[in-house]
Design a protein that fits this description.
Protein name: Spindle apparatus protein lin-5
Radius of gyration: 68 Å
Subcellular location: Cytoplasm, Cell cortex; Cytoplasm, Cytoskeleton, Spindle; Chromosome, Centromere, Kinetochore; Cytoplasm, Cytoskeleton, Microtubule organizing center, Centrosome
Order of helices and strands: HHHHHHHHHHHHHHHHEHEHHHH
GO biological process, one term: nervous system development
GO molecular function: dynein complex binding
Keywords: Cell cycle, Cell division, Centromere, Chromosome, Coiled coil, Cytoplasm, Cytoskeleton, Kinetochore, Mitosis
Strand content: under 5%
Shape: elongated
Number of strands: 2
Number of helices: 21
């Protein structure tokens, strides 16, 4: 059957109404297949779902299914099919929407009621169909069955006819006589509504007196039944009070056991929590050991990297020493060149002196020609002024060159001092780094990075200083070349001056000044050579210091490596100790875990014993209930037997008494051989013992009422029969107050109070041993049972059967038989 069109229409109208009033507004839908796509987020928000954005129909219907399964409508979810609903099945979609409306009716009834009232007032929703659906749901709740709860959604016959089109049915050609209503019989049978077992003929034949007598007889029977039932009710109420008292005691014991179980559960939970804490501690110790091993490996790696960096520093130092050697070689070459220049200057000075002597001779020769050359003096003076200007420029250039050379020397000295300071600073930083790394291995990475950066910067600085020194050397070489060029130019100019002097005598003084300037320049060059010699000596001393520093650094490095080896050995020893500690901790933890496991097993065994005790108590309660039913039967039988003994005369009882313990039967057979006073005196000598049973503690049927088939043989009819009562000392000690006893004359006609042992005491044990020494018990298990020791060998029936049997005690009738004989 398909879905009703009216239901689909009303659902579409209602969901479109919800969509128009929802914020943000949603689009209207024309079929229920578009419900998840356009109104899915609205329905999810109205049902307070966690997921409100759906990409597929499967996800939407799965989320709605899970939400409904968590509500009170979960018993209806067995018939939902999310996959069919996602595929577009209209019946499954209507099921989901119907449960959605039912959820809204239960959890958001106010909102749904306002929406339906407003929609019905605006004629936008056909609410009659929805109200019928809600009424159908109420009927489902009242019937407490969820079978076919979606029957209200199916199309009925009228909907089928309406969907197929209305049409007039065809007329049938039935005759009116064939449509007569059937009638009942002329007279109903009397047994149609009667519950009597007698036949209606017997009821008709009976006379009124017979009916009256029958009613009287039934009244007497009912009264007797009522009286018996009232007595039974009284006995049952007594039994009920006793059972209720026992039930209360059992409940108290059960509550105590539950409290013990709760305490044991708390202890077990604490033990489990302690075990978890110990496991967490072990994990933490493992993590610490792992971290220590990682730190050790990292320290080894850092030490290796430091060794590599030190080796690289050694290589760089060797390179620097090689560069210093090259610098010293260059300085030697420069010194050699300076010596050559000095020799050349000496040679030129000697040549100038020779020329001076020659010029003096020429001056003497030319003094006579001075007058003639006065006219040419003005021109020579001009030439002299120009030469003076040139000499001044040359002297300035020489001074500048000397200043530049001094500046270069100072720069070289500064660079060398900077290098030495940087080397000293580097060595100090290396020592500090070594100490810091040996003191704190955790800061190795950061310090290594800093050292690398500093080392790279220092390499850059050393490279820049080397490049600057190389540039200075190149500049000095260029300056040397320029000086050589200047010297060559000076030589050329001196030659030109010589030519001019040879040409004119007036140029002698100018040449003398030029010679003086040349002497000054030579002196300056000598001073420069001396300064260069000093610089070379200083560089040699610095080289020696550098060699000494390198030696000291090697010694310090060897000492540091030895210290590092010692500390590494100490760390290895500490690591071995830590590993031993971890092994001991693991062993201790394993022992603690085993101990706790044993404790937990003991606690579980204790709990299992408690559970077994509870089950045993439950079984005992069931046994008590069975005893109650048995007691009811016994009470009925005892009532009947008591009535028989009360109503029957002594002789009738004598006829029924077949037990050898029956005193009236014995006296009737043998006659009164002794008087009553003698009999009472004899009875007084014997201890009083109860022979009545404890009906409440006996769980076997000992007889049945008259009229029922007995479960014993016919000879056991006496209430005083020995076979009727269990000769157990425990049952004798727990007899009811209504039990009958053979008593002494002082206690004749009174009931013996039941013995309820309050526990085994020293006095009680003494009393029992004294009694059993005088009169030994019939059963070996009686003493152990009465004392309460169930572990005694006499408490086991198998031991009793296998052991040697005792002679039966003499009964009370032995005295009579001995007197008779």
């Amino acid at each position: 059957m398909s879905v009703s069109t009216s239901v689909v229409k009303s659902m579409l109208q209602l969901t479109n109404y919800f969509g128009s009033n929802f914020t943000p507004k949603t689009e209207t839908i024309s079929s229920l297949a578009e419900l998840w796509e356009r109104h899915g987020s609205m329905i999810a928000s109205m049902m307070s779902c966690d997921t409100r954005e759906f990409g597929t129909a499967d996800k939407f219907y799965e989320v709605i299914f899970r939400k409904i399964a968590t509500t009170s409508l979960s018993f209806m979810t067995d018939s939902l099919e999310p996959k069919l609903a996602a595929s577009g099945d209209s019946l499954e979609i209507c099921k989901f929407y119907a449960l959605f409306l039912e959820y809204m009716r239960k959890d958001h009834s106010g909102m749904l009621t306002r929406a339906l009232e407003q929609a019905s007032s605006e004629n936008r929703v056909d609410t009659a169909v929805l109200l019928d659906m809600f009424l159908f749901f109420d009927n489902v709740y009242s019937e407490s069955t969820a079978d076919d709860w979606w029957a209200c959604l199916r199309r009925d016959d009228e909907d089928q006819e309406a969907s197929s089109g209305f049409r007039t049915p065809k007329r049938n050609n039935y005759s009116l006589t064939s449509l007569q209503t059937p009638t009942a019989t002329a007279r109903r049978l009397r047994t149609a509504s009667s519950t009597a077992r007698r036949s209606p003929i017997a009821e008709a034949v009976d006379s009124p007196t017979m009916k009256f007598m029958r009613s009287e007889r039934e009244l007497k029977q009912s009264k007797a039944r009522i009286f018996g039932l009232e007595q039974m009710l009284g006995d049952l109420e007594d039994d009920k009070t006793k059972l209720s008292a026992e039930n209360r005691t059992l409940k108290l014991s059960n509550s105590d056991l539950k409290s013990d179980i709760a305490k044991l559960k708390g202890i077990a939970e604490e033990a489990q929590f302690r075990a978890e804490e110990l496991s967490c501690d072990l994990e933490a110790k493992k993590d610490e050991v792992h971290n220590i091993l990682q730190q050790l490996n990292e320290s080894r790696m850092t030490l290796r990297s430091e060794q590599r960096s030190l080796e690289e520093a050694d290589i760089k130092k060797e390179n620097l020493t090689a560069k210093l050697k090259t610098v010293t070689e260059d300085n030697g070459k420069l010194m050699k060149q300076a010596r050559e220049l000095r020799d050349l200057n000496d040679y030129e000075f000697a040549r100038f002196r020779q020329q001076e002597q020659e010029l003096t001779e020429t001056l003497r020769a030319t003094q006579d020609q001075m007058a003639d050359l006065q006219e040419q003096l003005t021109g020579v003076e001009k030439i002299r002024a120009s030469l003076k200007s040139e000499n001044e420029s040359l002297s300035a250039s020489v001074e500048e060159l000397s200043v530049a050379s001094l500046r270069n020397k100072q720069d070289a000295d500064n660079s060398k001092t900077m290098l030495s300071e940087e080397l000293a600073r580097f060595e100090e930083t290396v020592d500090k780094l070594r100490q810091e790394k040996l003191e704190a291995l955790s800061m190795a990475n950061s310090r290594i990075d800093a050292l690398r950066l500093e080392h790279s910067e220092r390499e850059k600085m050393m490279k820049s200083t080397n490049a600057r020194l190389q540039a200075d050397l190149d500049e000095e070489r260029n300056e040397k070349k320029r000086l050589m060029n200047l010297w060559n130019e000076l030589n050329e100019k001196s030659l030109n001056v010589d030519k001019a002097v040879h040409k004119s005598n007036e140029e002698f003084q100018s040449m003398g000044s030029c010679l003086q300037n040349a002497k000054r320049q030579i002196e300056q060059l000598e001073v420069a050579c001396k300064s260069k010699d000093d610089i070379i000596k200083f560089q040699e001393e610095q080289n020696k210091r550098a060699a000494n520093l390198i030696k000291n650094e090697k010694a310090i490095r060897d000492q540091a490596s030895a210290q590092f080896a010692e500390k590494l050995a100490i760390l290895k020893n500490s690591l071995a100790e830590k590993e031993n500690e971890t092994v001991t901790l693991k062993e201790n933890f394993a022992s603690v875990v085993m101990k706790h496991k044993a404790e937990l097993e003991e606690k579980e065994l204790f709990l299992q014993s408690r559970v077994d005790l509870i089950q045993r108590l439950e079984h005992e309660v069931a046994d008590l209930r069975e005893k109650e039913s048995a007691e009811i039967k016994k009470s009925t039988w005892m009532g009947e037997r008591i009535k028989i003994f009360q109503q029957a005369p002594m002789r009738g009882s004598r006829i029924r008494c077949g037990s050898p313990d029956s005193l009236p039967d014995f006296l009737a057979d043998n006659g009164p051989t002794i008087t009553e006073e003698e009999l009472r005196a004899q009875l007084a000598t014997f201890p009083r013992k109860s022979i009545a049973p404890s009906v409440d503690d006996n769980e076997f049927d000992k007889g049945t009422p008259i009229g029922f088939k007995s479960n014993m043989y016919d000879g056991r009819e006496s209430i005083c029969s020995l076979d009727f009562f269990d000769r157990s000392s425990l049952q004798r000690s727990s007899m009811r107050s209504e039990s009958i006893q053979l008593a002494s004359p002082s206690s004749a006609g009174e009931f013996k109070q039941p013995f309820t042992p309050s526990g085994v005491t020293k006095e009680r044990v003494g009393v029992l041993t004294a009694r059993n020494e005088k009169v030994k018990p019939h059963l070996k298990c009686s003493y152990a049972s009465e004392v309460g020791s169930t572990n005694s060998p006499s408490a086991d029936e198998e031991n009793i059967k296998k052991s040697k049997k005792k002679n039966r005690r003499d009964s009370i009738f032995s005295a009579f038989s001995s007197k008779k004989q």
